[in-house]
Amino acid sequence: MNPRYCVIMAGGIGSRFWPLSKNNYPKQFLDILGTGKSFIRSTFERFLPLVPAENFLVVTNAAYKQLVLQHLPELKDHQVLCEPMRRNTAPCIAYATYHILSQCPEASIAVTPADHLVTNEPEFHRIITQGLDFVESHNDALMTIGIKPSRPETGYGYIEVDQPREGIVPVASFKEKPDLETAKTFLAAGRYFWNSGIFIWSSHAIMSAFRQYLPDLVALFDQGKNLFGTPDEQDFINRQFEKCENISIDYGVMERSQSRYTIAADFGWSDIGTWGSLYTHARHDDSGNAVSGHAIPIDSQRCVVNIEPGYEAIVQGLDHCLVALRDHSLLVCRLDDEQQIKHWVEKL
Amino acid sequence: MNPRYCVIMAGGIGSRFWPLSKNNYPKQFLDILGTGKSFIRSTFERFLPLVPAENFLVVTNAAYKQLVLQHLPELKDHQVLCEPMRRNTAPCIAYATYHILSQCPEASIAVTPADHLVTNEPEFHRIITQGLDFVESHNDALMTIGIKPSRPETGYGYIEVDQPREGIVPVASFKEKPDLETAKTFLAAGRYFWNSGIFIWSSHAIMSAFRQYLPDLVALFDQGKNLFGTPDEQDFINRQFEKCENISIDYGVMERSQSRYTIAADFGWSDIGTWGSLYTHARHDDSGNAVSGHAIPIDSQRCVVNIEPGYEAIVQGLDHCLVALRDHSLLVCRLDDEQQIKHWVEKL
Questions:
Q1: Is A314 close to B307, i.e. CB distance below 8 A?
Q2: Is the Cβ pair B344, A296 closer than 8 Å?
Q3: pLDDT digit string, tens, across residues B93-136
Q4: Distance, CA of B135 to CA of A165 (rounded, Å)
């Protein structure tokens, strides 16, 4: 069995959760659901039964390195890889892969976003283990974890398979975020799954795919091939990373590959990408309010109230609104309009 | 002409403006309207053309003494009289009167709350001067300033006169806060004025009235008559003040007096006692929002947004609501329900 690695992608800035997540404190470091753990901490602990602590890598922005080490004190300094700027997931994963190869010529790698929710960990472990086992016996396989959809969600991409079947199956195609009508047909068809952004493959498979589909990226990293895992790695990355194409692993590799697989999972997954999804997953009081922090809702229904520790709040007379106070910034808005948050913040 | 004194009553705790005003920072020290000056500072400056700085006294709670001196650096330490606890306006005024008499056997005294708004200062000066002149030539007169009502306000007490007449007229009676129907008849009748809580009298007149209507209060203070104005005054007050009856000057003196007068004034007065009155007097944007601090209203109308310096806020999708953030406390509520603020704060 190859050594197993886990790459946590933690470079996001999470502007959709303003003011909780800001550039200086993005979503992966927050405990938005009030579980007592940040998303990145939960992600780490979720993989820890499957991967030894020394085989984790976190790829993040240089600005967040210390935050990562605070949240994951089990990691050594060199396990946090620092991107000098954001270049989407393909360069991020390529960087991590080159780093792993400098330590270990043949590895099995699970790649995961840092900021997702999973509620059924035993099932998660079963699925990921199944995936790791599969890529170890299918040397070219690129696996993505599909999530059985529970609603016609328009906020996720979808994975299409030819026929609904348990276990690991080839991917027929990847679908962009659909409109509501399309999402409804996806849901009814039973052979479309949400794209979780979790990938599993061998180092061999992903490097083959990079060579085939993103040769420029490979050429860039190959220039410093011998520097990975040495004290000169960061310097090389700081010089080279900017030149990488800004491209996602989905678009750059998965959509082009002939040996891609998925498994339809059902382990209580959400990317908690919006306040609305937070509302769905948080605990509610009798009036349907999801309250975190020292806040009292009065005559208020279906609100999300998220108040920073050390503050107190009274929220009266609101229906399906968001009240979030963090880091000297306050947002009060209708939850139905939350997709505008980014624009409002720009006005500020 | 007697020396003229101004007594500023500044002991209030202003719980109706939570979270802006709290026990540790009550309304009189706030610049709620964003004029650049606190209420107490504005009150002081408003009387300064009429009374020399050394003839001001501020009566406040011991806890606020340093705040008073910060806001009114022109005052000497001994010009801030400290009540050890709240005992309403009659004991407050008695204390100030005894203190003045220790300095000056015959004085003219204007007594004013610390936290009111006046927009027409020249007219204010004309009215107060007229009052001071009057009490200096009418040695028993107790004057109260009436305000010509502009609406059927149910939040103020009223002063009734027998017939509407310009200038200084005898008071027929004092009326408690009326219900709306009564307030409408008051407004229509033209001989009812809002009770501003501003009083003018000679030291002789108010002491005579105290002796006649509140003899117990006089007996209490007489025990330390020779201590006022000495280093032992505070000690005496700390021992004695608790024993004073908790009674207002209106109820204890004005309603019982036979020599009470009023003048119907129109100098842009408001006690800004509620967020609603603040809304009325503040500047509005095109959507009718009164915004103070770094806050952006979006799709919001007729809101009061009051954000502490150093914070930023987005307020979206609200109609006629209050959003106030101060001192680690946040209040979001419907302006129409603001009379409940006190109860909500108790829940916190």
A1: no
A2: yes
A3: 999 999 999 999 999 999 999 999 999 999 999 999 999 999 99
A4: 98
Q: At which residue do the structure tokens 């809580």 appear?
A: B197
In terms of Cα–Cα distance, which of A66, A63, A13, A72 is closest to A41? A72
Q: Do B198 and B68 meet the contact criterion of CB atoms below 8 Å apart?
A: no
* pTM of model > 0.80: no
| Cross-chain CB nearest to B313 (options A315, A330, A340) | A330
Find which of A299, A307, A308, A314 to mutate to test the B interface (most B CBs within 10 Å of its CB): A314
Task: Pick from A20, A330, A335 the residue to mutate for testing the B interface (most B CBs within 10 Å).
Answer: A330
ipTM of this complex prediction, to 2 decimal places: 0.71
Structure tokens at B255: 């309603």
Please tell me which of the candidates B298, B317, B344 has its beta carbon nearest to residue A314.
Answer: B344
Q: What are phi and psi of A117, to 5 degrees?
A: -105, 135
- Residue B29's CB is within 10 A of a number of other CB atoms, namely 22
Nearest CA in chain A to B19: A313
Structure tokens of A345?
Answer: 């913040």
- Nearest-angstrom CA–CA distance, A153 and A163: 20
Q: Give yes or no for a contact between A26 and A13, defined as CB atoms under 8 angstroms apart.
A: yes
Q: How far is B219 from B215, CA to CA, in rounded Å?
A: 6
